[in-house]
Design a protein that fits this description.
Elements (H helix, E strand, L loop, with lengths): L2 H25 L6 H12 L12 H14 L18
Helix pairs in contact: 1-2
Length: about 90
Amino acid sequence: MNRMKATALPLRRTLVCVALVLGGQALADTAPGDTTQSLLSLQADGAQQSSNPQALSGAYREKAAARFLKTLEQPVPPVQFDTSLSGDN
């Protein structure tokens, strides 16, 4: 099995699961956020977890951490808030 097919199968399974959850939710009368809660619960309970754990190598983790730390070196731009109470700008 080539690499493209090997990665496409788990993705296809994930998309099918999401479609089933969303499709089932669309049929029922749901409150705002119910679909999101359903998707988050699938993630949290581990029922749909992959049989192939996605671990990162130490070198990759170090590079990702270095990229994140570099973003902290950027100055935070000043933010100007509109303090007027009228809707006129």
